[in-house]
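re: the backbone from monday

yeah here it is again, tokenized this time
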């Protein structure tokens, strides 16, 4: 959890920043939600049932800085993030997601490894 929170702070270092979370109801979504809150950011919950246009409007209206998107939702998530002009990071199983700035868990692992020495 601490490593995920550190990764969230790395991608969106401002306290109170809004981070959109597009994730189906999987266990990982709870870990990421708590990491966002632990990092001092606010969660903007995005429904997996929304279209790319609806998500884009939510991202713009909420003034989200970054979107975290589960790999299974990457098609709609990357399109919405691109339209809103915000960065996108994936969460969940490793994948090479087009339009993504990286995977949150990979960043968390790299930060933890650097902290260990």
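seq for it, each position gets an aa:
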């Amino acid at each position: 959890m601490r490593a995920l929170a550190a990764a969230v702070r790395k991608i969106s270092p401002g306290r109170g920043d809004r981070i959109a979370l597009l994730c189906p109801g999987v266990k990982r979504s709870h870990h990421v939600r708590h990491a966002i809150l632990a990092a001092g950011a606010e969660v903007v919950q995005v429904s997996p049932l929304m279209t790319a246009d609806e998500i884009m409007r939510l991202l713009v209206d909420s003034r989200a800085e970054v979107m975290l998107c589960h790999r299974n939702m990457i098609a709609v998530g990357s399109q919405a993030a691109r339209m809103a002009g915000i960065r996108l990071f994936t969460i969940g199983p490793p994948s090479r997601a087009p339009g993504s700035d990286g995977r949150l868990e990979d960043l968390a692992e790299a930060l933890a490894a650097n902290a260990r020495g």
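The longest strand covers residues 18-22. Helices lie at 2-11, 27-38, 52-62, 74-84, 104-116.
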